[in-house]
Amino acid sequence: MRFSYRDDQLLVRETVRDFVRSRIVPNADAWNERAEFPLELLPELAALGLTGLAVPHEYGGAELDTLCIAMVMEELGAGDGSIALTIAAHNSLCIGHLLIGATEEQKARWLPPLARGTYLGCWALTEPSSGSDAVAAQSRARPEGNEYVVSGTKQFITNGSIAGFAVVIVGAGERKLTAFGMPRATPGLRVGRREEKMGLHASDTAQLVLEDCRVPGADRIGPDGEAFDDVKRVLDRGRIGIGALAIGLGRASLETAIGYAKERKQFGKPIAEFQMIQWRLARARTELDAARLLVHRAAALADAGLRFTDAASKAKLYASEAATRAVDSSLQVLGGYGYLQDFPIERHLRDVRLMEIGEGTSEVQRIVVARELLRVD
Ligand SMILES: Cc1cc2nc3c(=O)[nH]c(=O)nc-3n(C[C@H](O)[C@H](O)[C@H](O)COP(=O)(O)OP(=O)(O)OC[C@H]3O[C@@H](n4cnc5c(N)ncnc54)[C@H](O)[C@@H]3O)c2cc1C
């Protein structure tokens, strides 16, 4: 195993890090207060290639490998969880599904505007009554001539109310799923409730309501009733990104705590000299480093074309929980000041909690890991 990164990967990381420092960190509080995704940022994200991370050059994307995308997601997470989650849902979920399941003709139609950031994409799997058990979806698609008539409600959809294009996955009976590509203007597709959340306030989360949506047969992604395999593959890759995003949030909090611990004096000396403070900082740094190794190993397996389902679940499970611990511990280092909105850690703590829930809860990741250990289906 080689512990080195290519120059082009390091260059991408530096470029994104600079952008995050200059454009995202100074505005994150204001965007979160506004409680909506800052659409004015989209052209800048697109200019950096962040709206087409894995998309091949021929469709207008940056064609980055999975490891490089994980590096990008960590940098975005270190800037703001909401911006990072918006980019993750657009790239790993929406575009990720198209890269895995769409035909060449569909890719040529749908990928260029998504990769160029003309609009954001979303990916709608979850329903009010089916989350972890996604194949229990109640939505349905009824064939009618050359079209499908699609009905149902999709819940918790990141970018749901602002996306110009959605990959919508509906139930097909007998624990099967079918996927469709749906432009915003699809008749019968409307935005339902916009959710108010604990954190990630600048990330849009909405219900999508499908009322007898008429979708051309040519817009079905993959064979009828066989989307579940593609969904699992989308989530495998997505989990690497969520793990990386979590590490970014943990890292940003830890950096704040380190700076604070050196400055803040109690009992006549900087609190950084107290062993219990050092223990917190050392544990957080060690766990974040371990998490990064798991995330990058999963990404490297994916890039090598090897099986990475179980590696991605371990990475997402450990990284999200380690990051939550790191943010929480960093907040404690700041004492009462950590609890104030003057420092970003309280926002990071509200944001990082989602990483243990979205794209498969920690319980679901443990099921995946145990299944691999026990080799049962
Ligand atoms: C901010 C946000 C953004 C999201 N973005 C998207 C998106 O873009 N697209 C999308 O499709 N979905 C999205 N989701 C949905 C998310 O993926 C689900 O919330 C998640 O998969 C869990 O589903 P659930 O909320 O229905 O919980 P449930 O599945 O009802 O789970 C409830 C609890 O039971 C546990 N549990 C469930 N099954 C088992 C089991 N077999 N064994 C042990 N424990 C179990 C869970 O771990 C959890 O603790 C988002 C959610 C949020 C909050």
Walk me through the structure.
By secondary structure, the chain is α+β, with helices and mostly antiparallel strands. The chain is built from eleven helices and ten strands. The chain has three domains: 7-120, Butyryl-Coa Dehydrogenase, subunit A, domain 1; 121-221, Butyryl-CoA Dehydrogenase, subunit A, domain 2, CATH 2.40.110.10; 228-374, Up-down Bundle (Butyryl-CoA Dehydrogenase, subunit A, domain 3). The strands form three sheets. The protein has a four-stranded mixed β-sheet, covered by helices on one side. The two termini are 31 Å apart. The mean pLDDT is 97.
CATH homology superfamily of the largest domain: Butyryl-CoA Dehydrogenase, subunit A, domain 3
Task: Give the strand order, joined by hyphens, for the main sheet.
Answer: 1-4-5-8
Mean pLDDT score: 97
Backbone CA Rg: 21 Å
Q: What fraction of the residues are assigned to beta strands by DSSP?
A: 15-25%
User: Helix segment count?
Assistant: 11
Number of strands: 10
Structural class assignment: alpha+beta
Percent range for helical residues? 40-55%
Inertia-based shape: globular
The secondary-structure element order is HHHHHHEEEEEEEEHEEHHHH
Ligand names: flavin-adenine dinucleotide
CATH topology of the largest domain: Butyryl-CoA Dehydrogenase, subunit A, domain 3
Which CATH architecture of the largest domain would you pick? Up-down Bundle
